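dumping this here before i forget
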Amino acid sequence: MIYDILIAGAGTAGLTAGIYAGRSGKSVLIFEGAFPGGAIITSPFIENYPAIKTISGPEFANEMVQQAENAGAKIVYEKIIGADIEGDIKKITTSSGEYLGKTLIIATGTVRRKLGVKNEVEFTGRGVSYCAYCDGAFFRNQTATVVGGGNTALEDAIYLANICKKVYIIHRRDSFKGEETLSKKVFETENIEFIPDTVVEEIIGDDVLKEIKVKNLKTGEFKTIETEGLFVAVGQKAQNEIFSPPVDTDDSGYVKATEDCSTNIPGVYAAGDCRVKTLRQLITASADGAAAVTSATQYINKINGGK
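structure:
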C-alpha cells in the first residue's frame, strides 16, 4: 500500500498532522519509536493552550492520540531505521519492514540535552533524570535539584516542590529565561531555593547519587550540594539524523523549512520543534502540523493531476 502521508513522530505536531490528514480524507501512517505525545508528556501541567485552563501533559497527549485515530490515522509504534525520500515515492524502513508514501512529514521533535559533566552517564537512572514528571515520585520527601532556567526547568521545580522536601534550581545566569508567571511561582514556593550564576561540575555518589559539585561562575568558588535527585533541563536537541542528508538542516541539526513547512525535498515537510524556528511551544507545533498537511495535500493533488 502507498499511503498519502507518512508522519515521522507522534508528538503534538505529528498527531495534529494526523488529525488534519484524516479529516481531509487522506490515508496516513504515523511512526513513533517511544511514547505518543512527545516531549509534552513530561509536563505536569499545561496552562497556556487556548480554551484549556489546565491539563496535564499525558492527558493532553492521550486526547490527541484518540482524536487522530478517530480521524482515521494509524500509528505504528516502531523506530525508523532507514529513509529513502528523494524519489516520487517516499520509503520509510522500520525493524518490521518498509512503508511507502506519496509525502512525508518530519515531526521528530527534540530530546533533552545532557550536561556533559563527569559521572553523568554513570548515574543516569541512579539519581540523574531528564524527566521530573516521570521520575519525581522516586524522590518523595527527599532533596531534588533542577538544572536550567527555561520553562521546562521552572515547571519541573514547581512539580517537584509538591513531593520533595527541598528543591534547588541551579542556573548559569542570575535570572530565569522562562515565563514571568512561572518565575513568580518559583519564588513564591517556600521549599524552592534558586542558586544563580552556577554550573554543575561533577556528580558524586556510590551506588546512587549523593551530592553534586558546583562552581559559581562569578566568584570561581566550588562547593558541594547534597541531593538525591538531579533533573536536567538545559535545552533541547534535534533528532533528524535519519533524514539529513538529503534534507537540509542548520548547524544544530534542525530542519530548514519554509513558512508552509516545505523542505528542500519535494513532498517532504517538517513540523514542530524539529525545524528551524524562533518559538517552540505547544501551539506552534500544532500550527505546524496543520500547515504541513495543507502543503502535503496540495502536493498530492498536484501530482494526481489536480484531482
